[in-house]
Amino acid sequence: MNRDMANIVIYLSYFFGLGSLILFGIFLFNGSFEIIDLHLTGNQALIFNVGLSLLFFIQHSVMIRQGFRKKLYSLIPEEYYNAFYSISSGMALFAVVVPWQKVPPTILSAEGTFYWMLRILFFLCMAGFYWGVRSLGSFDPLGIKIIKRRLYNREQKTLSLAARGAYQWVRHPLYFFTIIMIWSFPVLTSDRLLFNIIWTVWIVIGTILEERDLVAEFGVGYREYQKKVPMIIPFKF
User: Which of 79, 107, 149, 185 is 20 to 30 A from 67 in CA distance terms?
Assistant: First the structure.
């Protein structure tokens, strides 16, 4: 592996992958950045925002599928793919939150005690998200660890099916906490309500598709896990 190329990919993954996640977290907590005003009408702005979201949904959902990954292995070395995915997803996420158009008026607004309850709930979910990441152990969302192991000739680690920490309560805790963070914003404008709905629907659909991949990868073991632990909401009905 070329060391210079590896370092460039690592830095790009940090910038776009990690940077976009931080920006997305600020967006969820603080609302639209209002950096770019395209002077669109209300309906035009909503359609524009939907288009931005669809861009991310398509990129994220297509590139994560195993069939698509295998097709790109002929163009991108396997050890670089996760970082390439992180960079591409980060660029798409930047493209969502930076030009996102705010559409007034305000539909609902929390005040007083309820406002502060929602603010606290957001940070509790951030702590829960971190708990979920820690529960995964060798989680490598930026694709950096696999490059470093290849660069220094270390043994690559394989993911095993083990329900630890947050994964004993729900099969997808990261998605669960993300949905709550999305809906914990105390001010609902038209664009924010649209964002909350379409991103929640996409997360649920994406989770169902991911479940299929996990069943294909882990087989009977994951089916038994499905019977014992709920998918997103940590309650069985």
Answer: 149
